[in-house]
Amino acid sequence: MTAATITAPAPAPVAASRPAPARRTYRFELVKLLAQWRIRLLLLACWLGPAGFVAVVSKQSSLPSDTVFGRWMGQSGWAGSLVVLSFCCSWVLPFLTSLVAGDVFAVEDRLGTWRHLLVAVRSPRRIFLAKAAASLTVIGALVAGLAASGIVGGLAAAGNRTLVGLDGQSMAPGSAAGAVLLAWAVALAPTLTFAAVGLLGSVALGRSPMGLLAPAVLGLLLQLAQMLPMPAVVRAALPSFAFLSWRGLFTESVQGRTVVVGILVSLAWAAVAAGLAYWIFVRRNFTDVAYDGAGRRLVLQVGAPLAAVLALGVGVVAVATPAAGSGIDRPKLETSLAAAYAHLYRLQAHELNRPDVTERALRTGATCDKGGSLVDDTGAGNDWRCVVTWHIPGATATGSAIYQLDVTADGRYVADGDGPQSVNGFFQVRTPTGDAPNPLWQFDGDVDLLSATVKG
After folding, report:
1. pLDDT at 99
2. pLDDT in tens, 243-262
């Protein structure tokens, strides 16, 4: 009997293991974020809190005059949103990015769920992109809530009225609305930087709570740095410069170069920080269940590239702009103060029902001095003293008023009237329809730090 030849069946082809779809991974990470009670509370607070704050403060007799546009909250609904924006740029936005982006990777280390996530998604690259995109989506919703809530609260409390800009010029409601929305858009650029730093901290520090605090700590350090005397090109190269440069949208001649520099610098910092986070994440050994961050290598892996970004930014800003020194000098202050006074003088004349006069006819000028003859007339300080002069058509005498200026290192100044009493000596002026705020009593101004320094 012939033995039959038995042929073994061919092995079935093994299906290739494909990563989970990017859209499904993103949706999964977004649902995980929105399921957290703290994220829901943040969304509720951002969409409701600013409206209540602005509506209440706008009706008070004492307004936050120490904040830019704070003194105008009772006169224009658009000022309230700018007060919210100024406060958010200082404290709120770095804190929000800490709570969202600063914990999005570290939470997997604390819960020990990396192996389950990797089995489900099968692509570290897609996990990183999904978590980053979900974090940015939530942060974008938080910023949108802050902006919308502040605008609604301001309009409800003070109405859609003319806004006084940082050169004293009157901005029509339509122009004010566009500038306010653009200012919030500018603030998104440094917000992306803090979000990228949060991702970097969450990836590099593992389950350590310092990853969660990284954006908040960076925000505090930058706040302190902005108060220090430093060259304007170094200040412009910091990632938080755009949190201040949006003010240039509210000067009579828009400080476009300053705004653009702030945006580009912030985006450069964000790109480098996010790139570092991605580079560290995709090279991580996920089989190490005791992983507790990058350790000592973190200083070299993160510190050196960020220091290079700062140095490169200083060089580019120095070449691309005519900025020199602190960016604050006597000619700049005199020009800004004279222009603001001329605009506000007309506003006061309108309140008092006096005949209108053009800025050209007023021929307003200013002479400033800082700390006496022994001190250079440059830099920040509260020892600036200025005399403003103007001419009334048909009158032989020249009017004059004295102002004490408190100039901060970021270019903002507060001009405080020091006489005569009939012009700037009182908080309110008596008009035919009742008492009204005196626009010449105290007002804000802003100098362009990146413009050419004129030697007087």
Report:
1. 92
2. 999 999 999 999 999 999 99
Percentage of residues in the chain having pLDDT higher than 90: 67
Secondary structure string (H, E, C) spanning the chain: CCCCCCCCCCCCCCCCCCCCCHHHHHHHHHHHHHCCHHHHHHHHHHHHHHHHHHHHHCCCCCCCCCCCCHHHCCCCHHHHHHHHHHHHHHHHHHHHHHHHHHHCCHHHHHHCCHHHHHHHHCCHHHHHHHHHHHHHHHHHHHHHHHHHHHHHHHHHHHCCCCEECCCCCEECHHHHHHHHHHHHHHHHHHHHHHHHHHHHHHHHCCCCCHHHHHHHHHHHHHHHHHCCCCCHHHHHCCCCCHHHHHHHHHCCCCCHHHHHHHHHHHHHHHHHHHHHHHHHHHCCCCCCCCCCCCCCHHHHHHHHHHHHHHHHHHHHHHHHCCCCCCCCEHHHHHHHHHHHHHHHHHHHHHHCCCCCCCHHHHCCEEEEEECCCCCCCECCEEEEEEEEEEECCCCCCEEEEEEEEEECCCCEEEEEECCCHHHHCCCEEEECCEEEECCCCEEEEECCCCCCCCCC
Indicate the average pLDDT of the chain: 89
Tell me what pLDDT residue 293 has.
60
Other CB atoms within 10 Å distance of the CB of residue 211: 27
Averaged pLDDT for residues 148-155: 96
Instruction: Read off the pLDDT of each residue in 269-292 and give the average, rounded to a whole number.
Output: 85
Give CA separation, 95 vs 187, 195, 218, 219, 405, in Å: 14, 10, 10, 8, 32
What does the pLDDT read at residue 38?
Answer: 93
pLDDT reading at 53 higher than 80: yes
Over residues 57-67, the mean pLDDT reads: 85
- What is the spatial distance between Cα 174 and Cα 152, in angstroms, rounded to a whole number? 15
Global model pTM greater than 0.85: yes
